[in-house]
């Protein structure tokens, strides 16, 4: 079992940033699935309208995810490599859901990423 290192902040101090990250990861994951639907409509059915409306919304949601993930990464003192991997998880369908659960387990256990 991994124990909390002295340079890792206690999980209680990360409760707010973790909760914001979890919400952003979920919204980003759902948003990415929505983007897949509008891309199928755009390129598979020649319907560019939904994509023109939804794509900018998805972009804003992803930028919010980036900011909140960096906030948690800095406060939890993650390694740069793991922070980048978590940031990239918002680009792959379904991965943000799995990574959100992994990050939540690690942070609540007081383990460093």
Could you characterize the architecture of this molecule?
It is a multi-pass membrane protein. The chain is mainly alpha-helical. It has one domain. The protein has four helices and no strands. Helix 1 runs antiparallel to helix 4 and helix 2 packs antiparallel against helix 3.
Fold topology:
Layout: H1 15-44, H2 48-76, H3 80-88, H4 95-108
Helix pairs in contact: 1-2, 1-4, 2-3
* Backbone structural class: mainly alpha
What share of the residues does DSSP label as strand, in percent? Answer: under 5%
SSE pattern: HHHH
Estimate the helix proportion, in percent.
over 70%
Low-confidence stretches: none
Query: Radius of gyration over alpha carbons?
Result: 16 Å
- The coarse silhouette is elongated
**Tally of distinct domains:** 1
Tally of helical runs: 4
Largest sheet: none
What distance separates the N and C termini?
15 Å
Total beta strands: 0
Q: Round the mean pLDDT to the nearest integer and report it.
A: 91
Key attributes of the depicted protein:
single chain; 113 residues; mainly alpha
Give a short summary of the structure.
The chain crosses the membrane at residues 21-41, 53-74, 83-103. This protein has helices at 15-44, 48-76, 80-88, 95-108. The chain has 113 residues and is an all-alpha fold.
